[in-house]
Amino acid sequence: MSDNPRVILSAFADEAANHKTAIEQMVALSALGLKYYSPRFIDVKGDGNVKHVVDLNKAEYKQLLKLHDEYGMSVTSIGARVGKIKLVDKDDGSHNVFVPFKKYLKTEVANTINAATTLGTKLIRGFSFYPPKGEDPKPYMNQAVDQIGQIADLCAKKGLIYGLEIEPNLIGETGPLLAELARKVKRANMVTIYDGGNIAAQNKDAMQCLSEFHDMSKSMGWLHIKDYAVDSDLEWTGVVDEERLKNFVPANVGDAGHEFVLRELRTILPKMEKKMKKLGAPGVFLEVEPHLKGGGQFGGFSGPDGIGVAVRALCSVLDYVGIDYDLRTFKDIQILRGF
Q1: In the CATH scheme, what is the homologous superfamily, with its name and number, of domain 8-336?
Q2: Which Pfam families does this one have (predicted)?
Q3: 3-state secondary structure at position 125
Q4: Whole-angstrom Cα distance, residue 284 to residue 68?
Q5: What are the residue ranges spanned by the domains of the chain?
Q6: What predicted TM-score, i.e. pTM, was given to this entire model?
Q7: Pick from 12, 205, 230: which is nearest to 123 by CA?
């Protein structure tokens, strides 16, 4: 029996599906040996009607749950878009939308919480709101703290964990900013989500990514795994054009330095696992979100071949640094067959 700490592998399944159908998503991830996934965009009926998971109706949720049973899949988190709206109603040249916050709580946030409870997950992935494009996020920090706190409180009422993902252009676009948000929100059920690719995409190297991992480590709940190859010919303007990001790569070849990050993760995993299990999660997830064939503001695509490349790349780094994980075995097949 290994003494290595252990993570749970997962993926954003819509990245694997050419047509976003639920069956494509289940087939691709179960064939890779994964037992968990995060739903985002999905065509449950296979009729070409792709919806975000929080917009499904009762019949579609029921059908999706049947597919989970058939393919032996469980939900890691809701791949929500909560927090990807403007903090203030100001024309800043971006296409980001503003929604009055009370209305937002009753619509998007309520629908996301319903998706989590219906699909049997404790985790919701969210974001930290957009300040006006090109402006310093600091003056908008307190408003973001207040709104994130309200969302976390609604999640807590349902026993859910709210995770803030690091991402360019948001209030929490850097490790220090996201750590500050976590300290100020100060909710036991609110954690942060590290994503090395989202940091490297801001023209940062491996040591900068590792530094921001350290900034987030106390508040961290789980990790998204994607990497980015920095284009040295691109001038950094302080704002990432998310629709033009095409340099995402597997975790064993990019500029985010996953070898260093995961080696550091190994030392804090036991403490992280204890925290997440106390909150009701099954452990610490490493969730592949590779964007190998392109990424954008609300998602990305890798294809069934790309998701396989990304998962195998992550496994190779985990093996190298000494972190254990589970993929499906014959015992899992026997369980599914009722033996």
Answers
A1: Divalent-metal-dependent TIM barrel enzymes (3.20.20.150)
A2: AP_endonuc_2
A3: strand
A4: 21
A5: 8-336
A6: 0.96
A7: 12
